[in-house]
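ESCALATION

Customer reports they have been waiting on this structure for their group meeting. Please prioritize. Original submission:
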Amino acid sequence: MKFFLIPVFLLLFFSCKNKTADQQEDKIYSRHLQREVKLTIINTPIPGNKESLNLLFLNDGQDLKVMRVKEIIDSLYKAGLIQPLLVVGIDAGDRLQEYGVSGKPDFEKKGSRASYYNAFIDKELYAFVKKRAGVRKFKSVAIAGWSLGGLSAFDIAWNNADKIDKVGILSGSFWWRDKSTSDSNYSDEKNRIVYATIKAARRKPSTKYWFFTGSLEETSDRDKDGIIDVQDDTEDIRLLLIEKGLARKEEMPLVIDRLGKHDLDTWSKQLPGFLLWAFGK
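Update from on-call: job pushed to the front of the queue and completed.
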């Protein structure tokens, strides 16, 4: 097993004395993914008591610059609105295969390596970050993503509720299905993979959820109810979590932007809301 983050974490945790957010680029070799994974590490000033530090994993780390993540975190922290935070942005590899639902590829066999990506987060990256940060336990751990990365974030949080406290899903691909909608036997209830997974669940993870959708993300409307699919699918997931007693409605925000599109600019504008919900003072 190879690790390449030592210089970065030594810098962040033993030499960080400035009052602004810092950003570094590095990489780690994953034995589960069998590839190097590029990381973007952003941190607020590190507190003396490191156990007051929060951790956020972000899928699609290659988008963080366009999303202005460093600037957003810096602004919120300087304004005294968020707690100390360490962000680990994870660059996507083959996102059509590594993002998805663990062990349940879609009907086109996409998401076939989602279980390996889950194992990378759970068994490699999380332990490595904790060890190098010198933190026995983070105050809280969250993961977030957008589009297919949002679906992946939900899946990882769902499968690792013992480690991940909160998840942010921006325009999550909850349409992910094991049967084509053109199939005469297709059913939203049975064939949307995440929906069916939640419906069959017996356990009750304590994860907290934050959802976002934009009303201008698409024009597709499977059930012809005048509401686009991304919003319908998200609302269905949220209502099912409430119905199953997995989360309380008042603790599970759904933000809908009537002008929101399926793009990085829209998600960047919504990111502060998620950060305030997850790490606000």
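Sent to customer with the following note: Confidence is low (pLDDT under 50) at residues 1-17.
Escalation resolved.
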